[in-house]
Design brief:
The complex is a heterodimer of chains A (297) and B (292).
Chain A lengths: L1 H5 L2 H34 L2 E2 L7 E2 L3 H7 L2 H33 L5 H9 L6 H11 L7 H8 L14 H26 L3 H9 L4 H12 L1 H16 L3 H6 L14 H10 L4 H28 L1
Antiparallel strand pairs in A: 1-2
Helix pairs in contact in A: 2-14, 3-14, 4-8, 4-11, 5-8, 6-8, 8-11, 11-14, 13-14
Chain B lengths: L1 H14 L10 H28 L19 H8 L2 H33 L5 H10 L5 H15 L5 H5 L6 H11 L4 H9 L4 H12 L1 H17 L2 H6 L8 H10 L5 H21 L1 H14 L1
Helix pairs in contact in B: 1-15, 2-14, 3-14, 4-8, 4-11, 4-13, 9-10, 11-15, 13-14
Classes of the chains: A mainly alpha (297), B mainly alpha (292).
């Protein structure tokens, strides 16, 4: 105590700061940084959990890049991204744009759109899975039957399964994006619109010349945020295709599901770790490319 | 106070109703009608889930949203089975403890990084921020090995330990502590409060809205978390609601109305929280989205 009292105010601050940070620094080191390094290390090893960890060099990566299943999964992962991000971006912008201009029951409408964001992905995956069942069980096919339209095979078709799994993922995230878009729209100064009105500019020009350019930071945020989400899709796929994980002929399998199966069904830890490193690289690459493209524009 | 005022002011522009009101015209009516139809379609999956959970087995294949003879039989059946009861309790315990830990530690770290001058500050900030880029999926294998080594598999601690602090929360709180004037902290120091007291009694009350937003996000995130609880638990008693529901739905011959009941049990609590704290949560989403 005596020593502490003899310290200068600045020195006391340093002591307090490190006292506050001691536990968190330990946490981040042991639970974040060490496992990251360990994952990279394991990706260069052969290990099935029971035996010894043996050095494998680049073997896991060579095996991965020669694996046709991996390339199929890789393609699926990007289909989720390239379908999911633009669709959710455009739909949520259209909703936000019009909701922003609506006064009557505004709060109620906003609640309707936001409600799905508060649901659990697993629960909703099962609800949508039920919707997709053939007659007489599934809701969608029952509606089709009632309207006299031929049945559609959703989850059991190699072409329809992926969009069917993606739909609830887009649906659940839409409300979040709408709210963010509306906040961005409200942040645009009214004076721009007033000036445009005086000049008699059409709403289409206002949208493209004022609203969208000024909304760019919001758009960048939503694109990067939702892209990361779609590249990491797992909960929906896993739960909508249990019993046949990854859908017919792996048609819905994303990278994270492949990682899960390699690690916790085949217990091939080295191979799975190599896949996680690839996932990390993909996420980093896609985020950086998106930030670069959108900054430049 | 200043912070709270600022947040309220900016979010009130989002939440408030604009005036003056223009007379309604046809275009606006069509816009409203389409938005209304879209909104109803958005909640249809939730509505059908709840409606089916209240139906008798013979009724579930008809398309009516309102059950002809509503029953809570499915709920009694599912809860008497016992498993959902435990999964619910597990989920509540895990989400609550994780939320408390995040609120305390993320704000303490955010505060320290924001208000203290000390060697290593910048490095620690960058280090914590960099963990945002590491996907959870990359860490699950090492976490699993760690849990196996220390006997954390199949325990509350095992489910919780990866999420006790988050870089997102730390960054969010740091942003908000920046709006707390240094003068307040200096004044408290002169009054003889120690640094821990200053953080807790002076700084924390000024960022209450941000703390609430953080708490809601962490709770929701842990309530719905799936991949890690799926990996780390292996006895049915330790499952959380999402893991439990997933295994329940996967059992042979489980009726859809029972699966819908399980889904409703795991969804209704967060929906109720949302309906009660609606304005607050939307304000939180905006704050996290813009500042985080």
């Amino acid at each position: 105590m005596k020593i502490y009292q003899n310290l200068t105010i600045r020195q006391k601050q340093i002591v307090w700061a490190w006292a506050f940070l001691a536990l968190p620094v330990l946490f981040y080191t042991v639970i974040r940084f060490y496992p990251t390094a360990n994952a990279i290390l394991i990706s260069f090893q052969n290990w099935n959990l029971l035996g010894d960890r043996t050095w494998a060099g680049l073997e896991n990566y060579q095996k991965l890049f020669a694996d046709p299943v991996f390339w199929h999964v890789f393609r699926n992962t990007f289909v989720y991204l390239l379908l999911g991000t633009p669709v959710s971006l455009v739909v949520s912008f259209i909703i936000a744009y019009h909701l922003d201009k609506t006064r009557f029951m505004h709060g109620f409408l906003r609640m309707l759109y936001f409600l799905p964001f508060m649901t659990s992905a697993v629960a909703m995956a099962w609800v949508w899975r039920w919707f997709y069942q053939p007659v007489p069980i599934g809701l969608f096919n029952n509606f089709l039957a009632a309207a006299g339209i031929p049945q559609v095979s959703f989850l059991n078709s190699t072409t329809n399964a992926l969009p069917s799994v993606l739909a609830p993922a887009i649906w659940a995230g839409l409300g979040f994006q709408v709210i963010i878009f509306m906040a961005g729209l409200r942040a645009i100064p009214k004076s721009y619109y007033e000036a445009a009105k005086i000049d008699g500019v059409s709403w289409w020009t206002v949208l493209w010349e004022i609203t969208l350019p000024l909304l760019k930071p919001t758009i960048v945020f939503i694109v990067v945020f939702s892209s990361i989400g779609f590249l990491r899709i797992f909960d929906h796929v896993f739960n909508m295709t249990t019993g046949n994980p990854g859908g017919p002929l792996n048609s819905t399998k994303p990278l994270v599901l492949m990682i899960y199966e390699t690690a916790f069904s085949s217990f091939d830890m080295g191979y799975a770790a190599a896949q996680t490193v690839v996932l990390f690289a993909v996420l980093l690459f896609v985020s950086l490319v998106q930030l670069r493209i959108m900054r430049d524009k | 106070m200043a912070v709270a005022e600022e947040i309220r002011a900016s979010s009130d522009t989002l939440l408030s109703v604009k005036s003056p009101r223009k007379p309604a015209n046809m275009g606006q009516f069509i816009r409203w009608a389409l938005l209304f139809i879209g909104g109803i379609l958005m909640v249809m999956p939730i509505a059908f889930m709840i409606s089916t959970s209240l139906k008798w087995p013979h009724e579930i294949y008809n398309l009516r949203l309102i059950p002809e003879e509503p029953t809570i039989e499915n709920y009694t059946f599912v809860l008497e089975d016992g498993r959902f009861y435990w999964w619910f309790v597990n989920s509540i315990i895990i989400a609550t403890i994780t939320t408390i830990c995040n609120v305390l530690f993320d704000s303490l770290v955010g505060y320290t990084l924001c208000k203290f001058k000390f060697p290593g500050r910048y490095i620690i900030f960058i280090a914590i921020l960099s963990t945002l880029m590491i996907p959870t999926e990359m860490l699950v294998i090492p976490w699993y090995l760690m849990s196996q080594q220390f006997g954390w598999l199949d325990s509350y601690w095992g489910i919780m330990f990866p999420g006790l602090m988050t870089a997102f929360g730390t960054f969010l709180m740091k942003q908000f502590f920046e709006t707390v004037p240094d003068d307040f902290i200096e004044a408290a120091r002169i009054d003889g409060l120690n640094e821990l007291q200053i953080w807790w009694t002076v700084a924390m009350p000024l960022v209450k809205p941000a703390l609430a937003a953080l708490a809601i996000f962490v709770f929701l995130g842990n309530w719905t978390a799936f991949i890690w609880p799926l990996i780390v638990t292996n006895s049915t008693d330790m499952y959380t609601l999402p893991v439990g529901l997933s295994s329940f739905g996967d059992e042979a011959d489980v009726a859809w109305e029972l699966i819908m009941t399980g889904a409703a049990i795991s969804t209704i609590p967060t929906l109720v929280v949302f309906l009660v704290f609606q304005r607050f949560i939307i304000r939180g989403v905006v704050m996290a989205g813009l500042k985080g």
